[in-house]
Amino acid sequence: MRRSRSIGDFIPSHTPSCLARGLARVAMHAPATKREMGRARRRFVVLLALLVAASSSSSPPAPWPAAAAPQVPCYFIFGDSLVDNGNNNMIVSIARANYPPYGIDFAAGATGRFCNGLTTVDVLAKLLGFDDYIPPFVAATSQQLLTGVNFASAAAGIREETGQQLGGRITFSGQIQNYQSAVQQLVSILGDEDSAAAHLSRCIFTVGMGSNDYLNNYFMPAFYSTGRRYTPEQYADVLVAQYSRQLQVMYNYGARKVALMGVGQVGCSPNELAQESPSGFICVERINSAIRMFNQRLVGLVDQFNTLPGAHFTYINVYGIFDDLLKAPGAHGLKVTNRGCCGVGRNNGQVTCLPFQTPCRNRQEYLFWDAFHPTEAANILLSQRIYRAAQPSDVHPVDIRTLARLY
Length: 407
Known about the structure:
This protein has 407 residues and is α/β, with parallel strands linked by helices. The chain has 13 helices and nine strands. It starts with 14 loop residues before the first helix and ends with a helix.
């Protein structure tokens, strides 16, 4: 994929012509894995089911908004296994979750979500007022593009090689190529580039990348050399520089309301605790400190993008929100923070959840579902604060609720 200009070299222009220049190049990019899966629409669980799921936790029920029109016309999702909802199902990859007990608490069962139930973006879609789940790109119809699709792919990273030991995945660059293809289709549906640009300028975009660039790259020396080639500071700089170029392409193709999700505390996951924590409770600081360096640079990246015409970028401090859950789990209805509800070995984290394995019964009390991913209960708690910040440190500069209102 041809790289766009960096932010420093950007020449301001109004949105439609910028989009037009991008569309002139989009024919070069074939959508990754688009043909690999048949079309299938997954309907959103009714409000009652969500309320029951939320009320099963001892934490207060999620403040779902009253039924009304969505706060934005569309929602586009980019990311990894934390938000993948089926794009990897037909890929030759170890990074798949389309088997039980994944989805044990989800109405449609094992759809490819790496969770027992709802992911953060499922909850955010509801909080934004959407009636349906945002469908995976590989299963979406052309008309569904009007309200948004999910491009996320498990094992994906900012770097092209990230996660390759797990097999197939749609890298962040590949997800952007799929988005470019979607924009081209939107132009055809809406009739012209100006209409498509106006539509996209009102959409919410959430981008959550970087976890695998540490978990399945930098801190995996048996497969990757990055840990030997770069100090943590250098690696954060390299990652953010590439991230900036990729996000610039999204901006050139009409993305204006963009929330960058910070990387969470990977060093506190059951997998890392099982491997590197002598007590099985204390988080791995060398991993978390490297991630904090990356997250700190995302704040500056947001500020840079917000100098561009029409841009409303924001940073979501997932690391800090997660830290609150770890420090005071009881206050949020959680009891177990260092073990997966489903998994094998120490901390239920040495091997992730196996097909047809029996998970824990008290899932609403667990922070982690498997060796790496949060439970639905944790995802609801995270999403509440992503949508409506509880503390000023949760976001920079605005939360999702405010972002939806900006023009």
